[in-house]
Amino acid sequence: MARLADYFVLVAFGPHPRGSGEGQGQILQRFPEKDWEDNPFPQGIELFCQPSGWQLCPERNPPTFFVAVLTDINSERHYCACLTFWEPVEPTQEGPCAQDGAERDEEADEGGPGALPTPTPGPPGQLFAPKTLVLVSRLDHVEVFRNSLGLIYTIHVEGLNVGLENVVGNLLTCVIPLAGGSQRTISLGAGDRQVIQTPLSDSLPISRCSVALLFRQLGITNVLSLFCAALTEHKVLFLSRSYQRLSDACRGLLALLFPLRYSFTYVPILPAQLLEVLSTPTPFIIGVNASFQAEAQELLDVIVADLDGGTVTVPECVHIPPLPEPLQSQTHSILSMVLDPELELADLAFPPPSTSISSLKMQDKELRAVFLRLFAQLLQGYRWCLHTVRIHPEPVIRFHKAAFLGQRGLVEDDFLMKVLEGMAFAGFVSERGVPYRPTDLFDELVAHEVVRMRADENHPQRVLRHVKELAEQLYKNENPYPAVAMHKVQRPGEASHLRRAPRPFPRLDEGMVQWIVDQAAAKMQGAPPAVKAEKRTTVPSGPPMTAIVERSGGLHGNSARRLEVVRNCISYVFEGKMLEAKKLLPAVLRALKGRAARRCLAQELHLHVQQSRAVLDHQQFDFVVRMMNCCLQDCTSLDEHGIAAALLPLVTAFCRKLSPGVTQFAYSCVQEHVVWSTPQFWEAMFYGDVQTHIRALYLEAAEDRDPFSAGEAPVQDERSALDVASEQRRLWPTLSREKQQELVQKEESTVFSQAIHYANRMSYLLLPLDSSKSRLLRERPGLGELESASNSLVTNSMAGSVAESYDTESGFEDAETCDVAGAVVRFINRFVDKVCTESGVTSDHLKGLHVMVPDIVQMHIETLEAVHRESKRLPPIQKPKLLRPRLLPGEECVLDGLRVYLLPDGREEGAGGPGGGPALLPAEGAVFLTTYRVIFTGMPTDPLVGEQVVVRSFPVAALTKEKRISVQTPVDQLLQDGLQLRSCTFQLLKMAFDEEVGSDSAELFRKQLHKLRYPPDIRGTFALTLGSAHTPGRPPRATKDKGPSFRTLSRNLVKNAKKTIGRQYVTRKKYNAPSWEHRGQPPPEDQEDEISVSEELEPSTLTPSSALKPSDRMTMSSLVERACCRDYQRLGLGTLSSSLSRAKSEPFRISPVNRMYAICRSYPGLLIVPQSVQDNALQRVSRCYRQNRFPVVCWRSGRSKAVLLRSGGLHGKGVVGLFKAQNAPSPGQSQADSSSLEQEKYLQAVVSSMPRYADASGRNTLSGFSSAHMGSHAPSPRARVTTLSNPMAASASRRTAPRGKWGSVRASGRSGGLSTDVGSRLAGVVPPQANGAPADPGFLRPQRAALYIIGDKAQLKGVRPDPLQQWELVPIEVFEARQVKASFKKLLKACVPGCPATEPGPASFLRSLEDSEWLIQIHKLLQVSVLVVELLDSGSSVLVSLEDGWDITTQVVSLVQLLSDPFYRTLEGFRLLVEKEWLSFGHRFSHRGAHTLAGQSSGFTPVFLQFLDCVHQIHLQFPMEFEFSPFYLKFLGYHHVSRRFRTFLLDSDYERIELGLLYEEKGDRRAPQACRSVWEYVERLSKRTPVFYNYMYAPEDAEVLRPYSNVSNLKVWDFYTEETLAEGPPYDWELAQGPPEPPEEERPDGGAPQSRRRVVWPCYDSRPRAQPDAISRLLEEMQRLETELGRPPERWKDAWDRVKAAQRLEGRPDGRGTPSSLLVSSVPHHRRSLGVYLQEGPVGSTLSLSLDSDQSSGSSVSSSRQAARRSTSTLYSQFQTAESENRSYEGTLYKKGAFMKPWKARWFVLDKTKHQLRYYDHRADTECKGVIDLAEVEAVAPGTPAMGAPKTVDEKAFFDVKTTRRVYNFCAQDVPSAQQWVDQIQSCLSDA
Description:
single chain, alpha+beta, 7-stranded antiparallel β-sheet, 61 helices
């Protein structure tokens, strides 16, 4: 029974003591006046009566009512029902009146503020003050309070004839039962009647309608998130304008949390004065008036629920974990069914008559029922995880959280973890864990209804039925008596508050009220206490728990077969059948990834333990330890699945004898697991064991139990520990005092003995075998943390002090051991403290334990020392044999294999990622260091992968970064030192050294690697040491050993320099060749080169006279053989002989001015300059340019005759200076001015040597431009400095078919561009189209400049346009080398991350790829190149003059030539292009590749690789235009950094000559075995295999390519991402060709039918080798068959050419050229990627997919195409070994032989690329019989039949070709074909 009301209080408005405008509450009266003993008067009531503050208001408000809740220090809640009404303030009052008891009835208002102005006594200025009646109660009967206070107010207002004292007295003395479902009628003595129903069960909360209201206000999702927030201890704040709503909402939220109790701050209505409470750090549920919303918004970590607006705001920094799926979605759907039953029927065609919606009260209970079910599902089976630690004198229950999470399958679930760790759940365990107590609805539900809930899961109607049943019970609990007698309570009349009250609320008579209270108290004492005995029972445990979601085991679903394997293996081990066990072990280790198999292992091992000891031999011991380690390595620190718990007794049972008296136990080999250093694990284990022993204590027949049932379902016939405990608690009151004492002591000694046992166990698993290794403890996470933060419950524990004294007293000499022992002692002491305090061990016992622990640890350390000593003597375990790598000829091992583990590096394929396939990494093997490479070879540690050899290697020279790491080895999980090596060939070696590798060996490896990577001198590189006599250590040989050409050159260089410089200069400065250290850096720009040339040169020294010395001539001849010179001759830019004789007809000449490298070190010896410029002027011109790299011609367009020039950027005093300082008065011709003038003259000479300036009536006239372009772009004639725009305004369509080819026609909106601010006209360029292609071909304006200078924007700043110049500056923004370097670093990181990605999948790769900006740089390069191609194609010349002229300039110039000239797309041509533009023109390969020690700081900058990537992008878009395959580009990309060949060493020809690399090929043929040049190697390899050849090669003549350059059109080069782990990178061909597969017939252990199939694993096998393309396969097949037939196999190239020739004949059934074969002109332009092209033949359009011109024979379309697409591999025969052809047009003609020779039919081929007419004996012939050079043809005329001509032919079919030497007579098969031939030859001539 309890009082209905504890206190009645009257609170009124009083002035604020500090005189501020606000008032404050004053308690006028309270009853009773002295506090109840059991319930003191709550403080601060006056604040809660008016939560928004006490204020006067100008009008009379209606009375308000709400209930505030106060919580006292004992967590008791006090409900304060407040009824507030307003009374007028008396204006006469000057201050609070003196209280006089006699005049209390006339007592006026209590104290209006003294300073109120009272000008008019009338109503207009009338103010009203609030007054509040408060009832304080511990019971929550809101309606009763409302009625009772209302009655008191009514009596006062209506003036009823009832004594208020009586009413108040009766209210305070009314006593009602707490629970039990009784009904009580009360009356307060004013003719009223109220019925109070008490709830059936005290434990269930009373919610009335509050939950339903909460859902109405906020909605399902919001309430669910508030629910999760409250459970996971977040701060929740409610806002509303209504106080009653606030208290309802808070009450509703609390009701939802049942059966958990909210144990933090709970204030449904918070007064304004206490708002700072909101910034408390602890969780809370608080309600605040909405007027304080602004204050709430400043709080950063508070979840704000606005009840009036229906919103819940969760701050960014707060994460509310959602309910685990599927509970979240199930709960959501059930709630919507309850709240909105119409939803299910909304879509029905014939909805049933509307269902009756539950009343609000009923709906409230249904909503609560949903949450009650939710808790039953969440906490189902929780009683199986309770540990009964003590039963008497009071039960101590602990909850095994890890086991609960593990068995529910929710280990990862954030929500449940937080709930179980929260205070509410701790309260739940201590309250509901008790085994013998009254039960309620939740206990029933969680024990008996779980099966039903699981069955109903997928049947919403059944779920709804269950919810309704539960709701009925909840409703019945609140309203046990449905037929309630009506309340009868008087209420005030309508608008009574507006009537003038007869008087203020009267003062009550304290004495009278007190007397009534005392009377009642006396009566109560006499009456017997009406205590209803609580019915206590054993709490039902319910079924054992199941996982929330029945997850299929996925990969490791442990089938019975797997468990069988585990059992068999263990029985083999114990039967000694080691070979059998060894076979099964890999399968067992694989199976042990699954939980059931690990349990099975533990059970099986238990069977082999007798009397807690099992002695094994060494092999058995090793097997058992390996399996245990495998089990434990997947255990988390909490051991959710009880695996470590099951193995704990075993690790102290299995042992082996090392020597007499020394035994090693398994625990010394399984210590490396995190679970052993986790205090929570040990606590759970300890409590579990204590429970087992205490249970045994009370079960008289204490049988030994299967250790597994400790944490799980016990065998049915025995009672669980909880049942035993329940029984004991029931009997406890009946036991005698002595018996009780005895039981308590027994229990305590049980706990104490277990504590000693555990101190031993922990020392076993925490002390390392080698106690000198303190490493173990420092690196164990648990121990370290405990050192810093003790989680002991004993605050001032003795553990610390004992451990300290132990350190000093125990007499340890060795500080290290001391450290280990001390840490372990402290760890164990903390553990003992915690568990003993919790399980009620007396402090004496605890002290005794603390004294014992150090001795236990010390004894164990001594035992271990002997074990450690003996275990060292065991024979070592056999490690896998080291696999020796295959080496190249000449490659030598520097360091032999160090054992390492190769770890996965974030590329998922190798670890069995998304592509499937086995986990090849981690692999166990060794790393080797050779003079050329770093090589790892080994085998995967995953036993299931089988005997696959894993190889990963990269050239030492490619190393870009090495860093030390510390990683876990995959097998033993030990922490080891490791090394991570990253290379620019996109390989990564992430290695952990095996423990046998000492740190000194690892350090030696690093040092050697560093020495090889950065040799002090370039002569130390592999390419130069290979096959030469001197080793890197020796001094370089004397000059006389070198080839003769080099000797003469050096002599000449010095001699010439001396002669040139003049005597006085020599005395001043002696010439020294730059020392090797400085070679990497360019000479400073302002100082001239060391071989300097003075101003006054004698003309004879530099201009080559006809009298060159013999030695000079020798140098010249070797220069002439260089690539440049051959290419200049091909381009018609002159030959050396004509240049020396100064033939004036040619506009350009080859100048040998730089043959001694005197003018520019980094240029080649022979340069192309305008004919009109004298050699001695070049010296002065060169000064205007950086590095003296003055403009020289490098290519000329065969069609428009425009030339492409290259140079370094300008110095300030160059052309730009000229433009800037045009009008400045010049005091005199200074040297700078003269060289600037020279430069201007030079550019003028370039312009005037262009043919179009000779004949202005060329085709560059206005007529060539479409009028549309004219209209939009006719710029003013003055604007001569144009800028290149960032071009995204698309020109709508191409008006004329372009001459060239465009990349795949996929439009893209991505605007990359050169990010310049440039206008949309480069010389009138219409902006390129949307996909990055340039605009229409007719886009150039008529008054184009003759020469465009493409320069760096920064350089050309402030340049004024000059209308008179014929050249024009185009400033563009380019990236610098350092940006390339930074971008490449990020690209490497993206492609080879180094550690597994946080979010697997392609998104993270693409994001990091974008961050690298690599593709944006490629885009810019392609964009500039296409622009230059356009300009050249339109007849303007272009000078590319960027940076120093050796990085981006080289990239652009090379790309332009590749796009413009089909020759450079052949193998020979590409080689020539690289030799000319990259090697001869001095790209600094050694500097950019950081080849020597000097370059180490500058790092690797992949300028050449970027160029190759651009070529690869073009190759992708035009696969039929390149003779070489993509593999060729990868090959060059790999070897330009590998330093295997000499080709890409050093920075210029000058340096190569100085080192003797350039011309030694002639003299030194001593070492033929090693290819010194990469080209030589490619050539040799090409003869053997078609790997560099592109079968789809079918070029179109004179084709200019215009690739799309937008980022969306670019692809990531697979060179960056692919790898082959079977053999390492495939670019060293000798190594990549592994041993051949044995033919199927010879395979051993046949039996099953052999198949020819084999598995190709991603990233392991080389796909091109496993699945070669069709043509390669057929060629291989032919070679194999020929070998079988005993013939010498034919070369693949000959076979391929023959097949193509035969193909051509097949395409013509009659064997003769038909007119259809001559349709050359209709070749479609868009032959796009992958060989898909559209044929628009006469027979209609067909789409043909083809690899080459191998069309299906006989089809008319293909034969009509035959002539159009001839596959070819054109090279210029004079430079080529194998003949190959380029056929623009071909057919049979009769040719008249020379004098007196007959007519013969020959097969003629017209070749436009080589500009020649060749003839063969017959079509399939590969040997050319003769050539007519079209350059010599003067005319083609109709001929007449001569003697011996074919008779049948019409005479109009004869024609003659007249050359400078003779006249050729031809005869075609008929007149049309003769006409075709004449037209073709004519067009060829006119093109030239």
